[in-house]
Amino acid sequence: MAFTVNLKTSMVKNSLYIQVLNMKRHYTIFLLFALLTLLIVACATSPTGRRQLMLVSEDSAIAASKQAYVEMLKPYAQKGKIDNNPGLRDRIYRITGRLIAQAIKMRPETKGWDWSIKIIDDPETVNAWAMAGGKMAVYSGLVDKLKPTDDELAQVLGHEIAHALAKHSAEKMSVAMASSIGVVAVGVAADRKGLALTGAALAAALAVQKPNSRAAESEADRIGIELAAKAGYDPRAAVTLWQKMAKVGGKGPPEFLSTHPAPENREKKLAALVPTMMPYYEQKGERPSYKL
Ligand SMILES: [Zn+2]
């Protein structure tokens, strides 16, 4: 009798177990299917015709970046380390203002963006980044260590603006979310680096700390040199900028090179673009500027 009961119990347990297994399998298949659909639906095309993964719409990337931007600048702002050198601030604002005016001509809907650039007083860090919606930062170390001319600085800033124009931030956020789906989404990522952010805003903050793909780098180089030339900055400086970047000393390569890995033949490709860009650079007349 006891045996029969046990058998029955174990049969019940077994069938329950099989049901759970089936449910798990169905759930997994469902998840895979949902992810696949998402990936297919979520493809977009970049300005140079490259396919991009877009799980995050540009609008939500912009909203998330707005929040992430404030949070990332906060520790520096609390120590008075934002825009605290008037000479450097005026120089960066002047160059960036001219570049943004050209960016708006290239993608008119970005006129509505709340464009912003902040200079972080950190003489050891050679870096600059841009988030969706034109939220940018440049570290004073980039200027201290590279000693760039205005033309070279315009290439760095043009390159950053190009990342935002070409939706690379939304693309990187999408990759971050797809590779840790459910983790970043619920905001329990171990990788949050002390940031009081969750979900998409956390993905936006992490995205600027992750390397771009080499394809995205080529695009940003191509768009950046054009923005700079149209804003009146010498396209030949794109080549010398990257030469300076490769030579900069210190412990290991500059931060900028790890988040902006060199596409194959970067300098050669940029040099090949110079003749096409020269007519923009040599155009007569005043260059418009966006008020920052
Ligand atoms: Zn880049």
Fold and architecture overview:
This protein has 292 residues and is mainly alpha-helical. It is built from twelve helices and five strands. The protein has helices spanning 2-41, 58-78, 86-106, 140-146, 150-165, 168-179, 183-186, 199-207, 214-230, 237-247, 255-259, 266-282, and strands spanning 43-45, 51-53, 116-120, 128-131, 135-139. The structure holds zinc ion.
Question: Bound compounds, please?
Answer: zinc ion
State the strand order across the main sheet.
Answer: 3-5-4
The number of distinct β-strands equals 5
**C-alpha end-to-end distance:** 85 Å
| Helical percentage | 55-70%
**SSE pattern, N- to C-terminal:** HEEHHEEEHHHHHHHHH
Q: How many structural domains can be distinguished in the coordinates?
A: 2
How does the major sheet shape up? 3 strands, mixed
Mean pLDDT across residues: 85
Strand content: 5-15%
Figure out the total of helices: 12
Low-confidence stretches: 1-7, 182-190
Please state the CA-atom Rg, rounded to the nearest Å. 24 Å
By secondary-structure content and strand pairing, the structural class works out as mainly alpha
Gross morphology = globular
